[in-house]
Amino acid sequence: AQKVTQAQTEISVVEKEDVTLDCVYETRDTTYYLFWYKQPPSGELVFLIRRNSFDEQNEISGRYSWNFQKSTSSFNFTITASQVVDSAVYFCALSEESQGGSEKLVFGKGTKLTVNP
Amino acid sequence: ETGVTQTPRHLVMGMTNKKSLKCEQHLGHNAMYWYKQSAKKPLELMFVYNFKEQTENNSVPSRFSPECPNSSHLFLHLHTLQPEDSALYLCASSPSGSSYNEQFFGPGTRLTVL
Known about the structure:
The structure holds 2 protein chains of 2 kinds. Chain A is an all-beta fold. Helix content of chain A is 0%, strand content 55%. Chain A is built from no helices and 12 strands. Chain B contains no helices and 11 strands. Chain B is globular. Chain B has strands spanning 4-7, 10-13, 18-25, 31-37, 44-50, 53-57, 64-70, 73-79, 87-94, 104-105, 109-113. Helix content of chain B is 0%, strand content 56%. The interface between A and B is medium-sized, with 29 and 28 residues.
C-alpha cells in the first residue's frame, strides 16, 4: 500500500526566512509520480510540481525548490525568503495507475505553513 | 467560467435530507474525481470517472451516489447522511486518468450535516 507522510503538522516562520517542508513516501511501484499542492484559505488545491520516479534532478522555480531523493524516499519542498502570501496548507501526494487505468493520488496529511510579517 | 467550479460552496443539511453537489470543468478534461477532506485527516479519494465511466469507488458508503452525465459535469448525490460526513468535498479533473497528469481542483463544497 502506498503511504505519504508529512511529519510537520504546522510550521510558523517570520517573513524572509527559508522553510523546508518534508515529505516521505512509501510505494512498491517502480514507476510513480510525486506532486506538491498548495491549499490557500480559499480552499482549492493548486498544483505546484510533478516529479516522476526516474527523474531525480532537483528543481528550482523562483523561490521554490524541490529535493527528490529516491534513496531516502523523500521529496522535500523548500521556500526561500518566505512571504506572507506563502501561508497555506501544503500537500505532498503520490500517484500511481490503478488497475482500472485511472490515476490514484494518495495525499499526506498536509503541513500548515504560517508566514508572519 | 474557467477551471473547475463547484456549487454550492456551502451546504447545511439534516440527516434526512437529499441534496446534490455539482462540479463542472471547463478545461476539456476527460477524467473527474471526488475527494473528501475532513479535519485532521488526509484527503480521501472517493470516486474516479474516466471518459464518463466510473473507474474507482474507494469503498464509499452508498449514501453517496456519484453521477457523471458527460466529461464536463460531475454530481455527488447525498441522502441520509451522518454528522461524520461533514467535510469539505473537493472535485478535480485531469486530461485523462493517467497517473502522469496533475489534477485541477475546484474550491470545494463545505458540507455540514446536522
